[in-house]
């Protein structure tokens, strides 16, 4: 039997009650409203104020739900009208869209840098062109409907169907390229797309979507195949993720966003953070490795999460590799410069890069720490020591909690910074003694953050490459390649993609580079091979 207390019985409620009601208002609004009405006569001023606030907020939420319903309904109608288009007709549409987007890449890049304050125009221009023409070329001519494959021996045929309405989030670090990529792959699969941009990228996001909507209109396709959230917020994002009319969530962003997507109750593909280690082995081509690293990590001021974040250098070549980095355009920080870096660039509370320096140029960061060199540089390299290295070498994978404890004892903000993701033209450089330490440290760095994303090895030894691939928990193992350009398929044979899965290593559903194939439902038509038992 359940006993309901009279409102007077909660005259002095626990301090947590208002917070619990606030949370329930978002996750279970009807239950929260019922509780709010039940508690509306409570004597406690704090609780009464919270109840009144929730009642008002839920009234506002009903308007939000209506607005979300309108957008999703438009998307569903547009997708239904688009579903019978042929691959050839869709490819013609996408060809025009990608061409126009590539032609306006510089305009979009200028708008993105101006609005977000992140990255630089030349690199964003190149990235937008890759996300349009490069991605289009990778999917043009591909079958995305009807029979995909026939296995005559097994009497099995695979058929493709669209998933329906896709809700996707574009990160503030790469809003335009990610949005273009998601628009192209969604339309290739005959899906409708609703995009949510960060409020600092809403203007340029709207511009990119409008360009594609103009192409849709010119081809006689429903313009509501591509929509965007006009007033983005965390609450609005959660409403779209949970809406019954949304078939799939495609989340690119931080860990909290990915967790929200997977907990929404809607099928989701999420992408977590990066923190790629780059192992520089004793037999590496040091100058080639240095050029690749500077080219990658300096690209778009370091905002690509798949770029290198940590250098793991064999001690036998540490001095020579430092010289190679300098020749390639890197500035190696002295101990005094590293101290100024910690004081001025690192957030002392979190040990992360201060947000004012995210996506800023090496010159801007150097000015903040009074760093100067007699040569131009594009990248800052912070020599670092990993305090848990000895434990990392001896730990087995089943003893990872011990490794986490060892790492968490590092009290200095600079030490915490050196082992984490750095969305700027800055990376850490660790020196190791031999192959076992190199493998262990690369593994440990991904355990701290970035598991499942990307790792790099510079070597000429095939056996070492295989051992690295077996041990390291990353979906992309790049060999002698710049990571930022390699992980997305710009310079490697990986699928051209701006959304890179991290698999169960990183708490997501796939290690693939996401393509239009992930936005299809594949049916399997099977005939009997033998009589029933």
User: Strand order across the biggest sheet?
Assistant: 10-11-12-9-8-13-14
How many domains, in number, for the residues? Answer: 3
Tally of helical segments? 20
By CATH, the superfamily of the largest domain comes out as Aldehyde Dehydrogenase, Chain A, domain 2
The CATH class of the largest domain is identified as Alpha Beta
Q: Report on the biggest sheet.
A: 7 strands, parallel
CATH architecture field of the largest domain: 3-Layer(aba) Sandwich
Q: Gap between N and C termini, in Å?
A: 51 Å
Query: What's the quaternary structure here?
Result: single chain
CA radius of gyration: 26 Å
Low-pLDDT segments, ≥5 res? 1-12, 396-411
Helix and strand composition category: alpha/beta
Give the overall pLDDT as a whole number.
Answer: 89
Helix content: 40-55%
* Outline: globular
Find the CATH topology of the largest domain. Answer: Aldehyde Dehydrogenase, Chain A, domain 2
The percent range for strand residues is: 15-25%
Q: Would you count the extended β strands for me? A: 15
What does this protein structure show overall?
The protein has helices at residues 16-27, 29-38, 45-82, 87-103, 105-116, 121-139, 175-188, 202-218, 234-242, 255-262, 286-297, 318-328, 335-344, 362-368, 389-394, 400-408, 413-418, 434-448, 462-471, 483-487; strands at residues 146-151, 156-162, 165-170, 192-197, 226-228, 248-252, 268-271, 276-280, 308-314, 330-332, 379-383, 426-432, 452-458, 474-479, 520-526. It folds into three domains: 9-65, no CATH class; 84-272 and 516-521, Aldehyde Dehydrogenase, Chain A, domain 1 (3-Layer(aba) Sandwich); 276-494, 3-Layer(aba) Sandwich (Aldehyde Dehydrogenase, Chain A, domain 2). It contains 20 helices and 15 strands. Strand 3 (165-170), helix 7 (175-188) and strand 4 form a beta-alpha-beta unit. The protein starts with 15 loop residues before the first helix and ends in a 7-residue tail after the last strand. Mean pLDDT is 89; it is low at 1-12 and 396-411. It has 533 residues and is an alpha/beta fold. Strands 10-11-12-9-8-13-14 form a seven-stranded parallel β-sheet, sandwiched between helices. The chain has a five-stranded parallel β-sheet with strand order 5-4-3-6-7, sandwiched between helices. Helix 1 packs across helix 2.
